[in-house]
Design goal:
By secondary structure, the chain is of the alpha+beta class. Helices cover 24% and strands 35% of the residues. It has three domains: 40-56 and 293-379, Beta Barrel (conserved putative lor/sdh protein from methanococcus maripaludis s2 fold), CATH 2.40.420; 60-69 and 209-289, Efflux pump adaptor protein, beta barrel domain (Elongation Factor Tu (Ef-tu), domain 3), CATH 2.40.30; 104-177, Helix hairpin bin (Helix Hairpins, Orthogonal Bundle). The relative contact order is 0.19.
Length: 384
């Protein structure tokens, strides 16, 4: 009796163990193996459809602002800087006297050549008196015609010497005027390189004057983009330290590309009548090139990448599928990317990146998440 009870107990234990194994392995039904996957639920906000939109291209230029109207005041002759009436930041007008350079050699030379001029005048006056006297004597036939011709030649020689003395004096006086420092343009003194009392060499820099009424931004574009640009096109320029963008325009386009970079220079002009901007400020200019084509596009967040291949996840007939796609133009402002190939227009695409997705897993779009365990949003990876 005791042996029969042990047999019944053993059979019951085996039956319970078999049932537990069937539950763990997912066996249900009439002894057939069926693996049950949870249904992934996505909200309408997590699923997007490709849309056809125009995707304008933005061409950007960056660099420091420069003032094309910049002049350097230099010493035209060597000498001592006597005075300088302006400092950095001073506003000057064109033709204003800014300082003076002492030129002792030229001053003595002016005096010397002035004396030579007076001597030439006296010589000419003496030759003219002799000529007049010889003409009276020749009329009375007291001198020969040869003597009269000699006196005439003396007058011409004296006249030539007088003209030469005048030219030499004028040249020296021009050099003396070079000792005066004059502003060539109107603007603001940006830099002062010398102080009164310093000895200046010829062509040494003394001041730099900048006109801020018009500034420029130099940029470059690729050769395949330059054909869509033209002088006069509007440009939006974001300047460092300025809240609102500044309106500019394309002023010039270089006729040839740089040999090393194959880039073509573009110059952007910015009017600055109130002088709010300063030369040297960093700026970024952008030109929007309109798009005439309607392109199939998705949000950038819907694009994944694995092993160098871009892909998206789509819901087809209630199951997840991964589709390889070829991308085209990007629009960073709208956050969209063009799908060139690999995706039909009428597709349900996951609009964000999720972890642990498996191709063929059941998926549905629901109005609201009903089960936080089965919801795919619980496993969503943070967007990169």
């Amino acid at each position: 009796m005791k042996r029969r009870w042990f047999a019944v107990t053993a059979v019951a234990v085996l039956a319970i163990a078999g049932g537990a194994a069937a539950v763990i392995s997912g066996k249900v039904g009439h002894g057939k193996d069926t693996k049950v996957d949870p249904v992934l639920e996505f909200t309408p906000m997590e699923v997007v459809a490709p849309a056809r939109i125009a995707m304008p291209t933005r061409v950007e230029f960056s660099g420091p602002l420069v003032a094309p109207s910049t002049a350097v005041v230099r010493a035209k002759a060597s000498g001592t800087l006597l005075n300088l009436s302006v400092a950095e930041g001073s506003r000057v007008r064109a033709g204003q006297v800014l300082g003076a350079v002492e030129l002792p050699d030229l001053s003595s030379r002016v005096a010397e050549r002035s004396a030579m001029l007076e001597s030439a005048r006296a010589t000419l006056a003496q030759a003219e008196r002799a000529q007049a006297q010889n003409e009276r004597l020749a009329a009375q036939q007291f001198i020969s015609p040869a003597a009269l011709d000699g006196s005439r030649a003396a007058v011409q020689t004296a006249q030539a010497q007088l003209d030469a003395a005048k030219a030499a004096l004028n040249t020296t006086r021009v050099g003396l005027r070079d000792g005066t420092l004059v502003a060539p343009i109107a603007g603001i003194v940006a830099k002062r390189y010398a102080l009164p009392g310093e000895k200046l060499a010829m062509e040494q820099q003394v001041l730099t004057i900048v006109d801020l009424a018009r500034l420029e931004l130099a940029g470059s574009v690729a050769t395949h983009q330059v054909s869509r640009l033209a002088p006069g096109m509007p440009v939006q320029v974001a300047v460092e330290g300025v809240d609102e963008p500044v309106d500019g325009r394309i002023a010039r386009i270089a006729p040839a590309a740089e040999p090393g970079t194959r880039a073509i220079g573009v110059t952007i002009e910015l009017p600055n009548p109130k002088e709010r901007l300063r030369a040297g400020q960093y700026a970024v200019g952008s030109v929007t090139l309109e798009d005439d084509t309607q392109r199939l596009a998705l949000p950038v967040t819907a694009i994944g990448s694995a092993a160098g291949q871009n892909h998206v996840w789509v819901i087809v007939d209630g199951k997840l599928q991964r589709r390889a796609v070829i991308l085209g133009r990007r629009d960073e402002l709208q956050g969209r990317v063009e799908i060139v190939e690999g995706l039909p227009p009428a597709s349900q695409v996951l609009g964000a990146r999720f972890d642990n997705l498996r191709e063929g897993a059941p998926a549905v779009v629901v109005a609201a998440k009903t089960s936080p365990v089965a919801s795919a949003a619980a496993s969503a990876a943070p967007l990169q």
